[in-house]
Design goal:
366 residues
């Protein structure tokens, strides 16, 4: 089992550090390198990209390019709220672990213990399996009827799972990324607390951290302030607003909206500087889950765990119609990098290229 540890500090000093100009060796500055990488995000006729980098608890870079809303010409700012998509999963995992910490739930709790009317296969599916994508639950996206454009919610996913009689594989035997699992985790939180999942997130995470712009959005119940809308590029080069899909109302797997400013606060939690959980409870978030075969799965609770350029890293991407996001954390360097974008056209290698800029700068500074 591989464990990714992170620095534990009791305080954090936040300071915006200006990017260096070209040094004596002629190395391009961080700012110049990022401008080259993000050249096609600059302008008032294209969707946005926002970047935040933190080193040793301090903000070393923060910038937004492009538009949060093309139709009104509203530019993206660090306060613009993007749909996080699957970056949401780390918040869902945290909400679940708060219940574990309070003794209201255990990671060994099964689906049938929470939902007595769940089919018998739920006796073998635990909270741990759901958190680590080792449950084998059927993908709810594949169960939606063609031609039906009605948005599904977490409770609807639960209903779909109750109509199944088996899983892809015995729980714990294999890894298969599962949005179904995280939708069910949201329903477990509701069942245990007796409160809507969105309210639990607000009361236990967003409000205590003063993440005032962050919301698990429910149409008709909440609004997203300073909202960045999602867009997709058409063949003629123009942009079409594609902000919502059938699955956009599912909260547990991807329904949170947040900004650079609020995620700066959140990263202090991830880094261990503002703990929401006891260390023993939080530890599995950054520990690689192991299958019944003894094989690691490269995932903890709400985080992918891997090695990048020989450095331990935990990360999570968030990809949905009109949005592409990623958070990366390098504990050895005490470096965190956040990338938010409200467009579909983003190379999968771009977040890594952005992280490279900061990693190389840190190497040169040693």
């Amino acid at each position: 089992m591989t464990v990714w540890t992170h620095t534990l500090l009791t305080a954090v000093t936040l300071a915006v550090v200006a990017c260096d100009s070209n040094d004596a060796r002629g190395v391009e500055s961080v700012e110049v390198q990022l401008e080259a990488l993000l050249a096609n995000y600059r302008g008032d006729d294209r969707p946005a990209a926002c970047i935040l980098a933190r080193h040793r608890g301090a903000v070393i870079y923060e910038s937004c390019l492009g538009m949060a809303e093309l139709e009104t010409g509203r530019a993206a700012t660090p306060e613009a709220n993007f749909r996080l998509a699957s970056v949401t999963k780390q918040f869902t995992a945290t909400a679940v672990l708060r219940l574990v910490q309070d003794g209201a739930l255990a990671t060994t709790t099964t689906l049938r213990q929470v939902f007595p009317d769940f089919p018998p296969y739920g006796d073998a599916v635990t909270v741990h399996h759901l958190l680590t994508h080792t449950s084998g639950l059927i993908a709810y996206e594949d169960l939606l009827l063609d031609g039906d454009t009605t948005q599904i919610k977490d409770v609807g996913v639960l209903g779909l799972m109750k109509r199944q009689d088996s899983t892809y594989f015995p729980p714990g035997l294999s890894y298969r990324y599962s949005n179904s699992g995280y939708a069910l985790l949201a329903q477990i939180v509701e069942a245990v607390t007796g409160k809507p999942f969105a309210r639990v997130l607000t009361e236990t995470i967003f409000e205590p951290l003063s993440m005032t712009g962050t919301v698990a959005h429910e149409e008709g119940l909440t609004t997203v302030g300073n909202r960045a809308y999602g867009y997709s590029r058409l063949d003629d080069g123009t942009w079409l607003r594609t902000d919502q899909s059938r699955t956009s109302a599912v909260l547990g797997d991807g329904g949170i909206y947040s900004s650079l400013r609020d995620l700066n606060t959140w990263m202090a939690v991830v880094e261990g500087r503002r703990p929401l959980l006891r260390l023993d409870v939080a530890a599995p978030m950054f520990e690689e889950a192991v299958l019944s075969t003894g094989e690691g799965v490269g995932y903890g609770y709400g985080w992918h765990l891997d090695t990048y350029r020989r450095r331990p890293r935990y990360r999570h991407e968030g990809s949905t119609i009109g949005f592409r996001n990623e958070i990366q954390r390098f504990p050895g360097e005490d470096l965190s990098v956040v990338f938010l974008s409200n467009r579909n056209e983003v190379s999968g290698s771009l977040p890594d290229a952005i992280a490279d800029v900061f990693l190389k700068r840190l190497e040169r500074g040693r």
